[in-house]
Amino acid sequence: MRGLLQRLLRRAERRLPALTRYRRPESLPIELHRRRIYIVPTGFGLGFSVLLLVMLVGALNYANNAGLLLTCLLGAASAASMLVAFRSLDGLRLAHIRAGHAIAGQPLELALAFDSSRPRNAIRVDLGCSTTAFALDGHATTEVKLALLTTQRGWQPLPRLRVWSNWPLGLFRAWSWLHPEQSVLVWPRPETAGPPPRAPAEDASHMRLHRGDELAALRDYRSGDPQRHIAWKASARHTNLLVKDFEQPQSRPQWQLDWRLLGGLDHEARIARLARWVNEAQARRSQYSLWLPGNEIASGSGPLHHARCMNALAQLP
User: Fold this and answer.
1) Average pLDDT of the chain?
2) Residue % of the chain over a pLDDT of 90
3) pLDDT per residue over 212-267, tens digit each?
4) DSSP 3-state assignment of 202?
């Protein structure tokens, strides 16, 4: 029954211009009003209407005033529920959308911020085949998290979202469409395996010393060493003076990720390899730089640097 109703709704969308009025993307914020909210009876509502009709005919046929009163009360309650379902969406506002990060082929998390001037219950949002329910208390913004399927890297426009409610009795379904004028950036899918990147700083010739705070080793005394660095207790057991050495090799290698060094690969294969190298450097907490056509990112590390490099790879033409 539910699949039949969904097919009928999709067919009505294609044939009725009023239902396709808001197919074009809209800028945020988007506020729902009476001209864009639609109401239809649910399957339960249709069955309930038939039941009321049978009760009405029976009450009139047998002149049963109590049955007629009950039928009128139930009819009034159903009509009131239609108004409540409409008011559940009327005035609802989508303030902004925050997108997370995901590589192509994985779901990307969307956080939709809804606000309202009054409390609302049992509101649902459909994105593809998934449905998420939420409520608003009328005082603060409510974030609704949805999963968006991704297929390829680059900018991906957001699809239409259906907001609906059948509260309070489930007799009527009120719904509307939201089509934000916003796109999300999908990161490229890294290759599964391949050669390591160029890391000249891992060679002994590129390892430079730096002055640290922790003791690295003891060495023989050299002229000019400060007296406070002399290890007197250790020197007492040797014939020569020993000095505390605080110099130690640099701990983090510098990775140079360069587009020009991958000339034997095609365009997408280069992007996939660089994405894998960026992920590996981030996992090892190494310092790394990235050279791309028209964009050179200096050496750095950390989550922000990783996101900047992946964003640059995702936006390559």
Assistant:
1) 84
2) 51
3) 455 556 777 777 677 777 777 777 777 777 777 665 555 555 788 999 888 888 99
4) helix
pLDDT digits (tens, 9 = 90+) for 46-95: 999 999 999 999 999 888 899 899 999 999 999 999 999 999 999 999 99
* 177-to-23, 30, 124 alpha-carbon distances in Å: 8, 10, 12
Non-local CB neighbours of 258 within 8 Å, separated by 6+ positions: 198, 290, 291
Q: Which distant-in-sequence residues (6+ apart) come within 8 Å of 146 by Cβ?
A: 109, 110, 112, 125, 127, 130, 132, 161
Secondary structure (H, E, C), 213-251: CCCCEEEECCCCCCHHHECHHHHCCCCCCEEEECEEECC
Cβ atoms of residues 184 and 108 within 8 Å = yes
- Residues 173 and 166: their CA atoms lie apart, in Å, by 4
Residue 145: per-residue pLDDT: 94
Q: Tell how far CA 244 is from the center of its chain.
A: 52
Distance CA 101, CA 107 (A): 9
Which neighbouring-strand residues pair with 191?
none
165-179 tens-digit pLDDT: 999 899 999 999 999
CB 299 within 8 A of CB 254: yes
The kind and range of the H/E element at 52 are: helix 43-61
For tokens 């211009």, the residue is: 17
pLDDT, greater one: 153 or 7: 153
User: Are the C-beta atoms of residues 158 and 141 closer than 8 Å to each other?
Assistant: no
Is residue 287 within 8 A of residue 255, CB to CB? The reply is yes
What's the chain's Rg over C-alpha atoms? 33
> Are the C-beta atoms of 272 and 256 separated by less than 8 Å?
no
**Quick one: which of 297, 300, 299 has its CA closest to 311?**
297
CA-CA distance, 256 to 213, in Å (whole number)? 28
Q: Where are the domains of the chain?
A: 2-185, 211-249, 251-314
Three-state DSSP class for 310? Answer: helix
